[in-house]
Amino acid sequence: MSLDPQLLEILACPDTHHAPLDYDEAGQTLTCTECGRVFEIRDGIPVLLLDEALPAPSGTAQEA
After folding, report:
1. Do residues 23 and 3 touch, judged by C-beta distance below 8 A?
2. What does each of the 64 residues of the chain score in pLDDT, given as a tens digit?
3. Coil, helix or strand for 46?
4. Which of 6, 37, 51, 59 is deepest in the core (most CB within 10 A)?
5. Cross-strand partners of 53
6. Is 49 within 8 Å of 63 (Cβ atoms)?
7. Coil, strand or helix at 29
8. Rounded to whole angstroms, how far apart are CA atoms 17 and 4?
């Protein structure tokens, strides 16, 4: 399931920096362009909860 392009334009990381998110349609995830946290998309709904985000893969983003 693909996310609406207009929705993708307004979504941002819920952390204090509110950086844009990169969409991985195949993996159904959104990745923060600043901190590297990975947010899952479940049943077409982005789960933008910091407590449920996956940490940035090693070496891909600045340490938060």
Report:
1. yes
2. 789 999 999 999 999 999 999 999 999 999 999 999 999 999 999 999 999 999 998 866 554 4
3. strand
4. 37
5. none
6. no
7. strand
8. 23
**pLDDT value at residue 61:** 54
Tokens of 24: 């991985």
Q: What are 55's two structure tokens?
A: 């940490």
- DSSP H helical segments within 1-64, as ranges? 5-10
Coil vs helix vs strand at 47: coil
Q: What is the pLDDT of residue 64?
A: 44
SS3 at position 6 = helix
**Tokens representing residue 15 in the block:** 């952390």
